[in-house]
Structures are given as structure tokens and as C-alpha cells.
Amino acid sequence: MDYLDQIDLSRLPQHVAIIMDGNGRWAKGKGKLRIFGHHNGVTSVRDVVEGADKLGIKYITLYTFSSENWNRPKLEVMAIMELMVTTIHKEVPGFMKNNIRLNAIGDLDTLPEKCLRELNNAIETTAGNTGVVLTLALSYSSRREIVRAAKNIAIKVKNGELNAEDINEEVFEQNLFTGDMPNPELLIRTSGEYRISNYLLWQIAYAELYFTTKLWPDFRKEDLYEAVIDFQKRERRFGLTSEQVN
Description:
Layout: E1 15-19, H1 23-29, H2 34-55, E2 59-66, H3 74-97, E3 101-105, H4 113-125, E4 133-140, H5 142-158, H6 169-174, E5 186-189, E6 208-211, H7 221-233, H8 242-245
Helix pairs in contact: 1-2, 2-3, 2-7, 3-4
């Protein structure tokens, strides 16, 4: 099946957010350690970003490591951090070749020094690229992000930099980690789970949600295309009636 023939390139989601779930279960199903699933999940990331670039989707944001993930077994967390360091280092030449800009959101200061250094180097190296913006949500909690935004706004009001009467949704969004990018129009979650898991709670207010039973290491660009096709079949009304939209 040629999925590309079914996609209307004039109605693409500009921003796709993905909850990459199922690495551990995928590895367990093969009699391997959980980190084996994380390693193979990197291939899925590479393939999906390639697919997004081929379509012309500008922003891909991946739920890479949540603030709650720090509570996982210490050895697994250490292995994930080491994998992140080696993967980012290896992928930078490909990012440069394919004009991909790397970005990151979350409580980045909680990352190990080596990991943060490699991440910042990659972000700086790719800063001038103008293709797909690949954002990694690391040590990320949407609730904490919202609290952080509220605190930032409160400080600005206290310091006389902002009038309380001028606070609105636009001002609030500018104080989120994602303030310089459009909100996701499509959220994909793999592995058959049907929850948001504290991910981009403000930003996905009007996003279309797409759930697939595929585990993340099995997810490929063709699965992204299926999600986009499903997205384009939906009627996005934003509170209006069908008659008003059509």
C-alpha cells in the first residue's frame, strides 16, 4: 500500500508529538533486558524523523524521558543516559546532512553532566539548520512546566515587567518550554496504552489523539503515515458545528 498517495500534503499537521512507549515490553518479549528495547527504539526515531522530513512536517516532539522515569531501577536509568550520550553524538552528522535542528525541553539541569554537555553541543551545532525541528522532552513533566510558567509570570508581575491585566493564553504559552513553536495538532502514543502520562497537557488541548498497539521499536515511517491519514479524515471543529466548518 502506498500511503503517500493517500496523504494531502496541503493539510499536514505542522507539529506531531509522540509518546514512545513499549521499549521494555518489546525487549522482554524477545527475552532481552529492557535496555535492548531502548537501543532498538533509536532506529524508530531515525526512521520517523526521516518520514516526517519526507512529508514536510516541521516539528516532531518526542517524550524521551519523563521526570517520573528517574524512579526506575538505577541501572536502567544509567544505561538510558549513556545511550543518550552515544546516540546524540552519533546522530549529529546525520542531523547536519539532513538539515535537522535538535531541541530539548524539560528540567535539563537534572541530567548528568556528560549527557547535558553532549546535548548542548548537538543543539548548538544544529542551531542553524532549517529543516525538521526534533525536540526531545527530557526529565519532563507537564505539570511542572505549567507551574514553572505560572511562577515566571508572577515574577514578571512582581518586578513590574508585566501587568496582571495583560496575562492571557498567549502570554502563558510564551512562558512554556514550547513557547517558540506551534502547539501539536497530532499526538501519537504507541504500545496500546490510552493515557497522556503528564505530557504537553496545555499544548495538546486541541490535538487529535492517535493510539496504536505497535510497540515503539516496531514503529516506522509507514506507521506515521497511517496516523497522518487518520488525522486527515477527522473533522477538526474547535467548538464550531460541522456546518460552520464545512
